[in-house]
Amino acid sequence: MQDILTLINDPNVNILGAIFKLLLSLLLGAVVGLERRHKGQIAGMRTFALISMGATLAMLVSIYIPQEYMGLKNGDPGRIAAQVISGIGFLGAGAIIQMKGSVRGLTTAAGIWMTACIGLAVGAGMYIIAVAACLLIIFVLMFLESLEKRLFKGGEAKIVRLKVDEILTDTSIYHECFAKYNVHISDEYLRYDYTREISTINFMVRCKSNTDFVTLFAEMRGLGPVLSLMLTNEVNN
Length: 237
Hints:
Elements: H1 2-9, H2 15-38, H3 45-70, H4 78-98, H5 103-123, H6 127-151, E1 156-164, H7 172-180, E2 184-193, E3 198-207, H8 213-221, E4 226-232
Antiparallel strand pairs: 1-3, 1-4, 2-3
């Protein structure tokens, strides 16, 4: 047993130690991915496990090459591993694009980047730090979200897209309607189609989670020649 622990903690790359590090990074990555999948994200256990293992393997290769071919004193064990930090941004950007710019995609992208760092830590033999980082990620993703909801209760960000069959120059009547339902307008974006005489307005609003948008939209419809009303998370001018 002592020999096994010695091989696992050996700073030099060996078969048993490398397999242990890959298995540990798989487990830690899967734990983070499980939480993300639970929240309905596309990137789940498999994605995060592969990212963590890939980073660990990159770290192992970084250590192995100077160890075997150049000598640890003359090589740079961090050269290959450093590319993981910049390269993982590609996957992070992909998560954001997949969510069509939604803020939810940013959290997943940050989780992907952090999971890659965990993989590097495991590959470098920093087991306790890697496990602690994994637990802290789960704490941030699970508990800070509920804390945010309690602190900012009644402050969900939404976008109401209104399309009317006229060139609208005054939106105050819609502002009054939003205020009636305790919906705060943060900003608005307008687009005019003078050929068809159609106006499109994106209202960026903050509202309570139980806001009755069905009744709100029904009342807004009676304020003018409304063609469509949509509740979304995307601005589309």
